[in-house]
Structures are given as structure tokens and as C-alpha cells.
Amino acid sequence: MGYKTIDNFNLKGKRVLLRVDINSPVFNGKVFLSNRIKVAVRTIAELKKRKVRVVVIAHQGRPGDSDFTSLKQHANLISKFTKIKFVNDIMGEKAISEIKKLKNGEAILLENVRFLKEEFEPSKNKLVARFSKLFDFYINDAFSVCHRDQTSVTRFPKFIKALAGPNLIKEVEALKKIRIKRALFILGGSKAEENILLMEGKVLTCGIFGQLCHIAKGFNFGSQNKFLKTKFSILPELKKKIDEIGKNIKMPLDFALKIKGMRVEIPLEKFPSNYEIYDVGERTVKIYEKEIKQAKFILMKGTAGYAEEKIFQKGTRKILKAIANSGAFSILAGGHLSEALSKLGISESKFNYVSLSGGALVAYLSGKKLPGLEALKK
Ligand code: 3PG
Predict the structure, then answer these.
(1) Rounded to whole angstroms, how far apart are CA atoms 19 and 2?
(2) Residue 194 CA: which ligand 1 atom is closest?
């Protein structure tokens, strides 16, 4: 692959800065034990076994979002499998002192790197200057953030010997084998700016994204949650894209609302409503199932509804089952969709590839150069 790996060097006793992606679902302030955390655990444990001094750097959420929170709970979750100490600092005196104190085979997790403005200013900055002096190696094991030109992803390889982590390598190796031809894209979740890049060929929309597509076309749902409104800046671009692909895009024809804790489905014609949408409805699923049956290659990204709540898992479950039974070559993308799979008890083995990445996968498959990977090559 042209990258150096952890097997190319004897890392014993070396101070290593390990970038992982443990960005996980957060509900009511509680961080869930995600697949991303589980795969990060493997690399951390492996490095500890090799007597490395491991400093883990990672993010959770984006500034302003409801899941933008500390990594303290992530440290507790990781510690269930392999001991790691949480340090509520990133580059201040406390962090530096903890980094210097580390012994062979020990690991610490620094606070959410996106708490620092330096993370978003990937020019020569304080974080780079301080860490460049402290570490023998930098390992990027976070393919899912490689599409971001952010300090912890792209800057350290310029100053510290950089290696590709085992999870990153696994993901790139799998994606290299995939060629998108005449695909059916099932685009859900909320990351509209990523989904827009996949709007080619046939597209079925669902999740928050499905609602956004309707809103882009001028539809009024009535009550809308605050989160959805933060996505409105993309509407003009989305409308343009929808108009461009014309008949090849399908949008949900009915939705499930939450009314007094119950699931109530209503067709599009019955909106506006005072209640919020949590899933796509049965009629939509039936139409999507037919499309899925005819597809040869399917990429689904993001969930069809709020899969964290049992009564709103229906859309996601039925669509996933249809994909699993379709015989098409199938890829599932995005952290939340892979989480949903575990929650729904559907085996990963029913799909050709289940990725923990969303935006990075989209960028990779659409032929873009990923800044994080480019940095590792240099
Ligand atoms: C993801 O969830 O896809 C990654 O953690 C990257 O997160 P971001 O889209 O907030 O950069």
C-alpha cells in the first residue's frame, strides 16, 4: 500500500501518538460502546502488548452538535477491555506531564481533540509544535477521518515518523477491491453533504436525509427538530442535485411520527404535522424493497430512521433485510448503520462489506484523494 506499518519497526519503549476514531452514538449524554471503540481497543491492546507507551488522540462529535462531548466515558468503555487512563487535557501542562510519565505498555486517552481550535487550523500550530518534540511515532488508525484535513489527521506525519494502523490498512485493502458500477444508493442518516456526492445512478432516500430532500423541493413537514434545521444551508445544492437526477431519485412517501410515545405512520399528503418524524413508513419500504430486488450493486449509507428506539427500527430493519436477501453486491457505510446492525441482530456476514466509515468511504469511492492517506504516504 506504500505505507509503513507497526510491523516495520520495533516499537518497544517508544512514545507513540495513536489517532483512532471512537466517534460513537451518544444519547441523553450517554456514550454507547460502538464498533469503532471495539476496533480501537484491538490496536491499543496490541501496542500495549508490544510494550509501547501509547497516547491516544481522538474526537467525538462536532462543535455545536449534541454529541460533541468529552472522551471520559470512552476511556471507561475502552478500560472494560484494556486499561487506559483518561487525561482531561490535550496539550496543556497536565497532558504533557502525563505523556512524559508514561511507562512501557501503558496507555492514556487525551480529551476530545476537537475541543481545541488548533485541530481545525492544520497549519503549523501549538499542538503540532508541542507534540512533534514528544513522540517517536505517529500512527493513524482512523480511516474514517482521513477525508478531513485536520491537525490530528494530516499534520503530524510532517514532523513525526508516521505509520498506518491495522484498522486503517484493513479498511483501505477492502475498499480497493470495490468498483462502483450501476449502483443503487440508499442514502439515509443526516450527513447530507456526504450523501450528495453519491447522488448518481439510482437513489433511494431515507432518514433525516429523506426529509431534507423533500424540504429542498419546498415541502413543509410542520414541526421540525432543531437538528434538522442546522442542515438547511445545504438545501439549494440539494435541490439542484435532485432536479439533475430527476426520475432516478425516490423520496419517502410516508413517515412514522412519535405521538405520545407511539409509532404512528402518515402519508406525505397528511403533512404538515405537529409531531416529529422518526422513521420512514411501510409504503415507502415496500417501494424500496422492489428496487432493492432488482439491483446488482447496493451501497447503503446511514439509517432509515431513529434506530436507537425499538419502535423506529422498522424501516432500517426491513431495508437491511431486503438488501441481505437480494443477492446484490452490498456495502454498508457509516458508524451509525454498523451500530444499527448489531442492535437489530442482523449478521455482518450477510453483506459483502460493512464499513465503519461514512464520509471517508464516500470520498474514497468517488475517487477523491484523502488528505489523511496522502499525509501517510509522504
Ligand atoms: C464519522 O463519524 O464519519 C467520523 O468520525 C468523522 O466525523 P466528522 O464527519 O464529524 O468529521
Answers:
(1) 19
(2) 9
